[in-house]
């Protein structure tokens, strides 16, 4: 099995970032913006060689073609690969080649499993050696951050002008030290009138997280804390497919009761829809669930992780509020571990289970059986 051959652009991609180039954090932000707009990314390495990747879902260069596609191993596992063992690690990047070059119209059904029923006959494909794994992994992570399908045409012909960056630039987005309190104000809510909303902002991230502080921090007592990830369908629209809305409401009322007894609570409302995969990809996962896949299988079929939430940001928010020890409302031991790894001391895990319904019973069972949630 030989290494994949790449078709280079006119300048052969042999360029390096000049000294006046934007900072790594800015390049990463520009890369996310480029993917949302459908523009290609050109990853440069220290040797001067470049790899150009065109996002399959959003690409505006409609005439682009390529001999190779980059997808995740989880998605590759659902395709007809001649050498399936090459795609054995679920979230690793996989380079594939078909019998003919990929056009965008041919690449989209490969990228989007929601189209499998309409396009059942694909392949055969072959996984090829990938000698730029760090670059490929960075590209898949940027696609997740952008909320698009993790699939690219590799060094495409007629791909258009590319945004340049380095593979390591994506790590700049993980600097939680840039997160600051931007504003705060009193906010009476249905559960209690004694609440304050605190808004957070980072210069490197467009997401604006908030914390609702219920009761008063008098410097004593460990607060009751709920880390709640944004769920438009559950929190706002009253979806019955999950338990997010009821959990949010119950957490606020539990904190209000805590405040009546002289304690206090903090609800962290994190802007990380779909456990970090974004609203559109969550809708795709819902479509796959309608076909019979469970919540974990649906994410994997999309080539996305079933858990991609940003726990260090939650830890930073708590730190800015002066909180280092908490009583955490969760059924998920992994959330306890993640926060403790980020520097938060969890003095107690407080069970937060609510009754199921006919629409979310399987979802909750999957969380118990596959994701380790402590549900009865």
TrEMBL record:
Binding positions (GTP): 226-230, 247, 273-275, 295, 330, 335
Keyword Zinc: yes
Lineage: Bacteria, Pseudomonadati, Pseudomonadota, Alphaproteobacteria, Sphingomonadales
EC number in record: 3.5.4.25
Keyword Nucleotide-binding: yes
Protein name: GTP cyclohydrolase-2
Reaction catalyzed: GTP + 4 H2O = 2,5-diamino-6-hydroxy-4-(5-phosphoribosylamino)-pyrimidine + formate + 2 phosphate + 3 H(+)
Keyword annotations: GTP-binding, Hydrolase, Metal-binding, Nucleotide-binding, Riboflavin biosynthesis, Zinc
Active site: 309 (nucleophile)
Family, per entry: In the N-terminal section; belongs to the DHBP synthase family. Belongs to the GTP cyclohydrolase II family.
């Amino acid at each position: 099995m030989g290494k994949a051959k790449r078709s280079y652009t006119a300048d052969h991609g042999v360029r390096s970032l000049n000294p006046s180039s934007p900072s790594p954090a800015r390049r990463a932000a520009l890369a996310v913006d480029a993917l949302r707009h459908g523009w290609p990314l050109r990853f440069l390495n220290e040797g001067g060689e470049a790899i150009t990747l065109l996002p399959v879902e959003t690409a505006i260069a409609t005439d682009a073609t390529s001999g190779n596609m980059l997808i995740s191993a989880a998605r590759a596992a659902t395709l007809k690969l001649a050498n399936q063992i090459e795609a054995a690690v679920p979230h690793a990047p996989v380079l594939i080649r078909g019998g003919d070059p990929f056009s965008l119209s041919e690449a989209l059904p490969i990228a989007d499993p929601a189209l499998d029923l309409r396009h059942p006959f694909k392949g055969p494909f072959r996984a090829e050696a990938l000698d730029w794994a760090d670059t490929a992994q960075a590209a898949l992570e940027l696609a997740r951050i952008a909320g698009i399908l993790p699939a690219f045409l590799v060094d495409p012909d007629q791909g258009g002008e590319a945004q340049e960056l380095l593979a390591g630039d994506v790590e700049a987005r993980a600097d939680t030290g840039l997160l600051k309190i931007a504003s705060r104000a009193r906010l009476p809510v249905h559960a209690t009138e004694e609440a304050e909303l605190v808004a957070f902002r980072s210069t490197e991230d467009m997401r604006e997280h908030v914390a609702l502080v219920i009761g008063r921090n008098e410097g004593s007592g460990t607060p009751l804390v709920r880390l709640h990830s944004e769920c438009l369908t559950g929190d706002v629209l009253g979806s019955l497919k999950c338990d997010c809305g009821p959990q949010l409401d119950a957490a606020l009322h539990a904190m209000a009761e805590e405040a009546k007894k002289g304690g206090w609570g903090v609800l962290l409302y994190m802007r990380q829809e779909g456990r970090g995969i974004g609203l559109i990809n969550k809708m795709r996962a819902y479509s796959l669930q309608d076909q019979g896949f469970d919540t974990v299988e649906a994410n994997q079929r999309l080539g996305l992780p079933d858990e991609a939430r940003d726990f260090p940001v939650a830890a930073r928010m708590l730190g800015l509020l002066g909180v280092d020890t908490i009583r955490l409302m969760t059924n998920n031991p992994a959330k306890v571990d993640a926060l403790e790894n980020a520097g938060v001391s969890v003095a107690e895990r407080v069970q937060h289970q609510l009754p199921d319904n006919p629409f979310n019973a399987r979802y909750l069972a999957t969380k118990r059986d596959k994701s380790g949630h402590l549900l009865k």
